[in-house]
Amino acid sequence: MEKKKQTVIDCDEIKRFECLLNTFARLPKIDEEPTFLEICRYPYNRFEEVCSRILKFFLNPKAEHGLRDLWLVSLLEVAGKSGFHSYMQEVAVASEVYANGKRIDLLIASNDYVIAIENKITADIYNPFDIYREYIEDRYKEKEKILLVLSAKPVLNLHSIIGNEYQWCSYHDLFEAVRKHLGDYIACANQKYLIFMLDFMRTIDNMNNSNSKQEWDFFSRNREEIENLLEHFNRFKERLWTIQKEQIAYLREKVADSTGDSSWWIWEGWDLGVHFNERKHCIGIESHFSEADNDPCACFHIYITTWKTTDWIPYKDKVMQCFADYNPHEEYEDNRVYIHLFDDIPGNDSQRIVDSLKDVYIKLKTIASEVDA
Predict the structure, then answer these.
(1) Which DSSP string corresponds to 268-312?
(2) What mean pLDDT do residues 358-372 have?
(3) Which of 28, 158, 203, 370 is deepest in the core (most CB within 10 A)?
(4) Where is the domain boundary, 208, 239, 258?
């Protein structure tokens, strides 16, 4: 016989859930604001090409960014080649350079050195580094050769790199060097491209964010317990909503009888309201319960609202004057205006709620008639 699923939380479960929530509360929080590159969501398997083109731009000392050789100096530093570059040198930066039928992501050539970069963001290491190296050695015989794998994540099979005279550099180390030297270049930077640069750096940082990894690990380890908690929480919310909806339905009947107006409506079960002047400068009343101290209907809230900010203008002075004793305060949100009235009304005082709604209804209806006249 199938075991009946538990629907009531026991004391041990509550303790486990509380421990789980406390553990989550201690996790470092992630910056949820997306970068511009994350908003663009360029196809995942083509993102390396995008990054290579961005690097090509910033590694070119004469590009429009105005940062001169900031990125080139920083790259040489993390490659252990500080001092190789002089601002007097001519530098050519190319992306997607074909070497004997294979493609080198980035190639930087100056008078004295050449840098070949294999750019790794998401893909694994499987490249023909021997072909790249032979191409560089054959074409740039007299120049110092710097062969790099630049990656956003740690490289596991380093032997395939080292065996072909490549070395691994991380984006993290490159960005640290860029940030270290940025103060020497920022005065001349084109601010538009500086913003793009910082956005690019944060996009890559987010891909290897330790905070994100901790959160991922937390959810992976506790998946079953979290799903159990969510199931109980959803049942809790359903019970709460059911009680509130029943009370709102009850109040609608009472206030409709009290005001003699059957046009009072309920939106999605929880929001009780009425409106006036629907065709022009629509204004209305909305109201709802909120929970507190284990009571689903602890407090009742009443506010006057217009569904467009511009509709509020002809009413504002009259409403604020008429309801001055109701402790009104304005709130603007998403092109709407809310005028909160009263302090919170106790949710168990149905008669006071109905009387308050009726009082607001009579006053607001009069104001709406005057504006509409």
Answers:
(1) TTTEEEEEE-TTSS-EEEEEEEEEETTEEEEEEEEEEEESSHHHH
(2) 94
(3) 203
(4) 208
Judgement on whether residues 91 and 146 belong to the same structural domain of the protein: yes
Identify the burial level of 141 via C-beta atoms within 10 angstroms of its C-beta, where 0-12 means exposed, 13-18 middle and 19 or more buried: exposed
* Residue pLDDT, tens place only, 105-157: 999 999 889 999 999 887 677 778 888 899 999 999 889 999 999 988 876 66
Say if pTM beats, i.e. exceeds, 0.70: no
Q: Following CA atoms 177, 179, 182, 183 in sequence, which dihedral angle do they give, to the nearest 10 degrees?
A: -120
State the total domains in the chain.
2
C-alpha distances (whole Å) from 130 to each of 31, 121, 134, 165, 367 are 41, 21, 6, 9, 83
**Amino acid identity for residue 218 in this structure:** F
- The 10s digit of each residue's pLDDT in 267-287 is 999 999 999 998 889 999 999
Whether 150 and 233 map to the same domain: the answer is no
DSSP assigned state of 6: P
| CA-closest candidate to residue 184, choices 61, 67, 59 | 67
Is the pLDDT score of 210 beyond 90?
no
156 and 82 belong to one structural domain: yes
113-120, strands of its sheet edge to edge: 92-99, 102-109, 113-120, 144-151, 167-170
The single-letter code of the amino acid at 105 is D
> Cα separations (Å) of 264 from 260, 288, 343, 350?
10, 13, 23, 17
- CATH code, domain with 82: 3.40.1350
In-domain check, residue 7? no
Give me the domain span that covers residue 96: 36-208
Residue 216 scores a pLDDT above 80: no
| Helix ranges, the chain (H) | 11-26, 36-40, 47-59, 70-78, 129-139, 159-162, 171-181, 191-207, 210-221, 223-259, 309-312, 316-322, 350-372
Q: Are 200 and 47 spatial neighbours (Cβ–Cβ below 8 Å)?
A: no
Domain shared by 198 and 247, yes or no: no
**Which residues, at least 6 apart from 142, have a Cβ–Cβ distance to it below 8 Å?**
none
